[in-house]
Amino acid sequence: xxxxxxxxxxxxxxxxxxxxxxxxxxxxxxxxxxxxxxxxxxxxxxxxxxxxxxxxxxxxxxxxxxxxxxxxxxxxxxxxxxxxxxxxxxxxxxxxxxxxxxxxxxxxxxxxxxxxxxxxxxxxxxxxxxxxxxxxxxxxxxxxxxxxxxxxxxxxxxxxxxxxxxxxxxxxxxxxxxxxxxxxxxx
Length: 187
Fold this sequence. Notes:
By secondary structure, this protein is an alpha/beta fold. It folds into 2 domains: 3-66, Double Stranded RNA Binding Domain; 83-185, Winged helix-like DNA-binding domain superfamily/Winged helix DNA-binding domain (Arc Repressor Mutant, subunit A, Orthogonal Bundle), CATH 1.10.10.10. The protein contains 6 helices and 6 strands. The chain is globular and about 45 Å long.
């Protein structure tokens, strides 16, 4: 049976739960609950065990990231999804720190310009939050879009927090995206 090693990574903004296999990162659950993270691990049908040492490099990079320092998450991945989802996730991973993209731009980037809605679904299924920076994906009209598969205030506040960490938004409260031209962060 496959083994998955996991740990809680405590950051100043909250806890991130992460898991890795021998191949690479398989889950990064940003600012969610342990219960939700563990439920996601069970769906992998693998034997899971806590092992903070296996996530040392991720912990170091997340700490640099949360300090507002440009950080590359060029770690091995063990992505599980459809080929289309993986293609989208790799495209998201290429969005530079401090920049944004849109569902439509990502669709063009992967050579499927009419697939913006399908790209949005793949973005919402991203298994490696922060590491594959889906928080950098917004609507092409400059709207903040969704986060974590939804549009609830709590989810959007997490997205706003991540964009604040990266210097894109000035604050989290009161819809700061309305005071900033987010399209100016497109490459």
